[in-house]
């Protein structure tokens, strides 16, 4: 089994690289952002409550996302492993993930943190906002998402460093170059 946390600020390429990792390694992709956007598209009560926070670039409450992840793990008993994308985003979420994995005799094997310059993050997200119209990809919200990341999410790196599974990867360059760096790190853990 291989369980990976793919970590990094908004626009660092977590979703893009997750897609390539699941293709190569057959893992199940769990993105809390994607799950929340599906709730919004389905106009559920949870989705409506989350939308306001997401449009402001604020985090959705811990218990909401922890419950979502727990349910998804439960729904995939035969998964060869999971890739957690955009989760955990607070230390509380990291502790909760550890606990809910331990209860199933599972653990995180690797946490990959994608490192990307602030200016590059903003450029990528503004471009996506223009091309795809995602409602949180406007300058004001992007800047708040980055600041929420720095204050509330970056400390999660210490958690995984203490667990001995933290690896930083240069997230600048082409999508394929970055993927090659990620594969190198994954292969080191698998052997
Ligand atoms: P989420 O959906 O997780 O968004 P995010 O973290 O802001 O990340 P993004 O999807 O914007 O970026 P990414 O790192 O996945 O990069 P991507 O590959 O898409 O969360 C959204 C919101 O939901 C949060 O603000 C919060 O409100 C809520 N939420 C989610 N999870 C939560 C949690 N656990 N707890 C509480 N709240 C939660 O790439 C970005 C763009 O760049 C794309 O257009 C892509 O094509 C492009 N790109 C990628 N790589 C490259 C490259 N190498 N060169 C050029 N362009 C590139």
Describe the fold and architecture.
This protein has nine helices and five strands. It is α/β, with parallel strands linked by helices and 191 residues long. A five-stranded parallel β-sheet has the order 2-3-1-4-5, sandwiched between helices. The protein is globular, with a radius of gyration of 16 Å. It binds BIS(adenosine)-5'-pentaphosphate. BIS(adenosine)-5'-pentaphosphate binds next to helix 1, helix 2, helix 3, helix 6 and helix 9.
Task: Decide which structural class fits the backbone.
Answer: alpha/beta
Small-molecule binders: BIS(adenosine)-5'-pentaphosphate
Radius of gyration, in Å, reads 16 Å
- Spans of 5+ residues with little confidence (pLDDT < 50)? none
Measured distance between first and last alpha carbons: 13 Å
The global form is: globular
Q: Percent of residues in helical segments? A: 55-70%
Provide mean pLDDT, rounded.
Answer: 97
Q: Strand portion, in percent?
A: 5-15%
> How would you write the strand order of the largest sheet?
2-3-1-4-5
Give the total of beta strands.
5
SS element count, helices: 9
In short:
The chain is of the alpha/beta class and 191 residues long. The chain has nine helices and five strands.
Spell out the key features of this protein:
single chain, 191 residues, alpha/beta, five-stranded parallel sheet, 5 strands, globular, binds BIS(adenosine)-5'-pentaphosphate
List the helices and strands and how they pair.
Elements: E1 4-7, H1 14-25, E2 28-31, H2 32-41, H3 45-56, H4 62-75, E3 82-85, H5 91-102, E4 110-115, H6 118-132, H7 139-153, H8 156-163, E5 166-170, H9 175-190
Parallel strand pairs: 1-3, 1-4, 2-3, 4-5
Helix pairs in contact: 1-9, 2-3, 4-5, 6-7
């Amino acid at each position: 089994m291989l369980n990976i946390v793919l970590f990094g600020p908004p626009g660092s390429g977590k979703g893009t690289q997750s897609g390539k990792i699941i293709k190569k390694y057959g893992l199940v992709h769990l993105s809390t952002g994607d799950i929340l956007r599906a709730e919004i598209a389905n106009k559920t009560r949870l989705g409506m409550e989350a939308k306001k926070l997401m449009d402001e670039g604020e985090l959705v409450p811990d218990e909401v996302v922890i419950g979502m992840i727990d349910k998804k793990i439960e729904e995939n008993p035969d998964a060869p492993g999971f890739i957690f994308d955009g989760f955990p985003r607070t230390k509380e979420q990291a502790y909760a993930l550890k606990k809910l994995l331990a209860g199933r005799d599972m653990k995180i094997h690797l946490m990959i943190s994608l490192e990307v310059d602030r200016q590059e993050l903003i450029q990528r997200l503004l471009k996506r906002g223009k091309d795809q119209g995602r409602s949180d990809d406007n300058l004001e919200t992007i800047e708040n998402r980055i600041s929420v990341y720095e204050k509330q999410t970056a400390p999660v790196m210490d958690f995984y460093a203490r667990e001995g599974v933290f690896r930083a990867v240069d997230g600048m360059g082409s999508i394929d170059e970055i993927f090659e760096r990620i594969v190198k790190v994954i292969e080191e853990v698998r052997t």
